Amino acid sequence: MNWNDPQHPSRQADWGPGVTVPPPDPSPGPRWARKRVILPAAGVLFLLGIGIGATGEEPEAVQTAAVKTEPGPTVTVTVTETAKVTVTASPEPAPTVTKIKKVRVTVTAPPPEPAAEAPDPVYDEGDDSGGGSTYYKNCTAVRAAGAAPIRRGDPGYDSHLDRDGDGVGCE
User: pLDDT, tens digit, for every residue of 94-112?
Assistant: First the structure.
């Protein structure tokens, strides 16, 4: 029996005092080591193939074969059609009969309303916001007096008439 044979008694795990021999590894290396070599090599070959194919060169010799043909019979087709056109006359429109009738309309207008008078402004001697002694209760009173828009510094200006605070009231 060969000393290197895996079946030799010295290669068995239970042979000898406390000596164990690991079983031989069937593969030359781990699987991940093989992938680390094969995958990059395949990628390089792929890129090489793309580079060679993308050179744009045409084949060196292109041969064309000319075939001599003999003339054959020619076929000519002639088609003749006859079209019939029928024209029908459209009837004339019937005469329109129009009757005219006179109507008298009387419109009565209501009497004109008297113009609304502007309310008198209220005077307040203690008003210090506007610069005058005129006071308007609201924007309706300002518009009725013809003073709209009213600006800061004008007689009758007050902050309650200026909603957005920009200095111009009743815009």
Answer: 778 788 888 888 877 777 7
